[in-house]
Amino acid sequence: MSIDLRGAFLFSRAAAKPMMAQKSGKIINIASASSFKAVSGLGAYATAKAGMVMLAKTMAVELGRFNIQVNAMSPGYLLTDLNRAFFESEPGKKQIETFSGMKRLGTADELKGTIVYLASAASSFTSGASVVVDGGQWL
User: Fold this and answer.
1) Domain boundaries, the chain
2) Is residue 135 predicted with pLDDT exceeding 70?
3) pTM for this predicted structure
4) In 50, 94, 119, 135, which residue has its Cα 20 to 30 A from 27's Cα atom?
5) So which residues are the catalytic ones?
6) 2-133 has which CATH code?
């Protein structure tokens, strides 16, 4: 909770100060698809990430008058060095097959388009949103 939610809150608040002075800016926090799904064993993580979604909504309301857009991106399962062993195991492969609409994990590269959108002028009227990038996962 301290890192996933409090850290994002403190960093976002600090980043907003110079943006308020210049009357423009973009804040993008990385939440999780777990923000919207209850999964046994992930209570603290999912709660913190859900808090980040509400943080984006609240800050969007508070900072909109300064032309600052605040959003969250909520990725699903991505293949990383940290989870590679699990997802290459039989239980991990079964989880991907069962709960992923695309029947595969995402990659960090597949998040780039969403980040570019949220950081660009194309999202000038998008604020308080959480964009889910999860390949159709339902876990």
Assistant:
1) 2-133
2) yes
3) 0.91
4) 135
5) 45
6) 3.40.50.720
